[in-house]
Amino acid sequence: ALVAIVFSPRARAQWGAGLMIISWASTEVPRYAFYVAALLTGDATKKTPFPLFWLRYSLFALLYPTGIVGEMTVFLAAASDPAFISVFTPFASFFYGKLLPVVYFFGSPFMVFNMAMNRKSAFKKRFAKPPPPPRGLEWPLDPKGQRSSTHVNKAIVAAAVGAASPEKADRINATKNWRFGYVRHLNALVDEQCQSPDAALAIAAAGLAKAYELFEFIAPDGSAASFDAAMAAPPGPDRLFTGFVQGTGPKRGANELRVPYKGETLAGDRLKAQVRRWVEYGTIEPSAGEAIVKCVDNPGYLDMSDRYFVLLGAGSAMGPFLVLMALGANVVAVDLDRPNIWKRLIGIAKESSGSLTFPMGVAPETCAREEEMYAHAGCNLFTQTPRIRDWLMQLYPGEKFTVGSYAYLDGALHVQVSLAMDAICRDLSEKRAGTSLAYLCTPTDLHLISKEAHEDAKVNFKSYSKRAFCTVLNLLSRGKMLRKNAKEPVTNKSGESFYVVNGISVAQGPNYALAKRMQHWRAIVARSKGCIVSSNIAPSTSTVSVVSNRTFAWAYDGMPYFKPFEIFAPETSNAVMSAILFYDLCDGASYGNPKNALSNPNLLFSHGSFHGGVWRCAYEVDSIGEASVLLYFSRVAKPYVIGVGALGAAVAAIYFGVTN
């Protein structure tokens, strides 16, 4: 526009030039005044004078359209001005008279809508209520006074690795970009754990101890102590009350394992046949298949009437709540104090043959109506961790608890909730006789796997690397896409080889990895102390929270191209993972039972894995996402491509006279 103004007398003389200049000036003067105020006050969102803030984020509604109209008149006037064209070339007429108007026509709405979204976001931040003061389990303050997760995450991993290799710990502490550099250090951590059972346990214990040391627990009065000290403090006067619901639904006629799968409910021989197909295809490990078949052949494993399950995060989509209720189990549910959660859980319990016990903020007899009970049910794992632990310690004396950690939150909150659950699991497993622990591991992690799974991944890689689609993608991405899954084994000083699969997805971030790693650490430490631990890898599952992200949904649709991947529905995952849990609790041959020796504690996670194909796939799971999305869209576009091709062929036939 400025070039047109300078070199085109016609553009300068017409009315739109003045409109453009006035619009520009009226936009830029308040904007730069706003920037100066932001620099002086130190806060562009809340401390700048409101009139200036309002002008900065509101004038665009009038001045963007007037400025665009003014610029368009300048372009069109210059395009028809012989003086302007003589200075440049005839192409200037096309550029200013046709190309720029088209660009502005389609591009201007995006610019206006983008500014409208910026305005909405800025006003939301300016008038947002200040966050409540930190309470309960919190990340500690960093040197800048912020509760950032990065330095703590790195310190915990460094402390863990440092228990076996101070040199590697130093390298972790020296890492600049932890967000994208954490994976290689987690690989180093697993390598060190492979060196000996003592090293594996020392690393786990050191990592957990560092987490308890660094995290803070802030009391209601604002005083802070280390999480370790808070959990060791004597119980306070406040306590949780106990709610109870006994289901009145009919009991199952037989303890039969039923697995919903692709619109059917599989049981008996049909279920065993499907399990064999999963094993043969490589979607699950043989030990997982054996565990499920054992539950089919031993209906007594499904008799939950005398068992007590503590579910931390009872309402989780991946938890076993529905299965346990259907089998008549006694469930102690721990979840947030939100009425909608408890209305659902209590409603399910009433229609079942099981029982539901839950924490309450008031005595249940004070609740005259069900709505009052829903309102007072539940607790907060972050702010009431010691109270929840104390409540569970005195609940149902003499009964053996199985404590399952199923709560999940995004980002840094996932580490906090994992540590809160760990404190409860630690104290119950060490202080309450007969307690067992249950975890659901993610396939997107570092795991020790069998040699057979490793060899299967190599065979699949040899097959897929011959496919043009895979070869081209790998070359175009310079090796970032479709990376080989089978790595060289880790050999320790005793000459024992361990096969490792790297299923970590960098996009999930170091907090997700640390949260799951802490569960691994607690599992092997508790097992070493005589506790039965069921900790099995669950498959990739199409939960609502996952498929609501379109990119993940597209990738999930394309992943089955890579043998032996399969994405499972939540009801299938719940059923099969519950079956493996029951096997671990009931069958003495399970490796979750500490009486069965393991050459390395981390081999616990190589048994009973229902990984969905991650271990035996040709490529690392983190490297097939983009390819899977491309495969999804190629399948969606296929009928349209065929249709366009057929139409083109018909037109060509008519044009060349082939139809005559």
Keywords, separated by commas or semicolons:
15 strands, globular, 660 residues, three-stranded antiparallel sheet, 10% strand, alpha/beta, seven-stranded mixed sheet
Summarize the SSE layout with pairings:
Blueprint: H1 2-7, H2 9-13, H3 15-41, H4 50-58, H5 60-79, H6 82-87, H7 91-126, E1 136-138, H8 150-162, H9 166-173, H10 178-193, H11 197-214, E2 216-218, E3 224-226, H12 227-232, E4 241-246, E5 259-261, E6 264-266, H13 268-281, H14 286-297, E7 308-312, H15 321-326, E8 330-334, H16 339-350, E9 355-360, H17 370-376, H18 385-394, E10 401-405, H19 412-431, E11 436-441, E12 446-449, H20 451-464, H21 468-476, E13 490-491, E14 497-502, H22 509-528, E15 533-537, H23 544-547, H24 550-558, H25 570-586, H26 625-655
Parallel strand pairs: 7-8, 7-10, 8-9, 10-11, 11-15
Antiparallel strand pairs: 1-2, 2-3, 4-9, 5-6, 12-14, 13-14
Helix pairs in contact: 3-4, 3-5, 5-7, 8-9, 8-10, 8-11, 10-11, 11-22, 13-14, 14-25, 16-17, 18-19, 19-22, 24-26
Mean pLDDT: 93
Instruction: State the share of residues found in helices, binned by percent.
Output: 40-55%
The 3D shape can be described as: globular
Helix-strand makeup class? alpha/beta
Largest sheet, in brief, is:
7 strands, mixed
| Fraction of residues in β-strands | 5-15%
Q: State the low-pLDDT regions, or none.
A: none
